[in-house]
Design goal:
- The protein has 149 residues and is mainly beta.
- It has a domain at 51-147: Lipocalin.
- The chain has helices spanning 7-22, 62-65; strands at 51-59, 70-76, 81-88, 91-99, 106-113, 118-127, 130-137, 142-147.
- An eight-stranded antiparallel beta barrel has the order 1-2-3-4-5-6-7-8.
Length: 149
Amino acid sequence: MKIAFRPHRALQTVAALSVLALAGCYVVPMQPAPVTGGPTVVVPAAPPAPVTFTARLYPANELAGVYGVVAAVVTNDLNGRGHFSTAIGGESFMGEATRVAGSPKDGVANGAGSRGSFLSCRYTMNSPTLGTGNCRHSDGAQFSMHIGS
């Protein structure tokens, strides 16, 4: 008996064997697929909250000795500016402090008294809440200033 060669039948057999050989294989991606979720929500950082601390003015000359050690309250807005209040010799002072242009540490503070006197200070900050400086009262009294605790 003679077996007839059927090219069409041979192609079907090769195709069937190829399908069977690949049936147990699958493709693994080299990188994981990107995760797609909803829109990304960006929450802006809250601005820094002002910090309140104390300052102490120590007498630096005889005129200031009459007043003794003076306590002040300072509020730093952490943006190069702040406010202070104190009482010297029974007079209330309120003022403002700002950093010197171009300096991240040096600043000036000036305050007006409730009876017409004034207070003028220069300071250097070592951190947002610690520093030192000098103050001069309009009557000539001079103080060494320590900022923070």
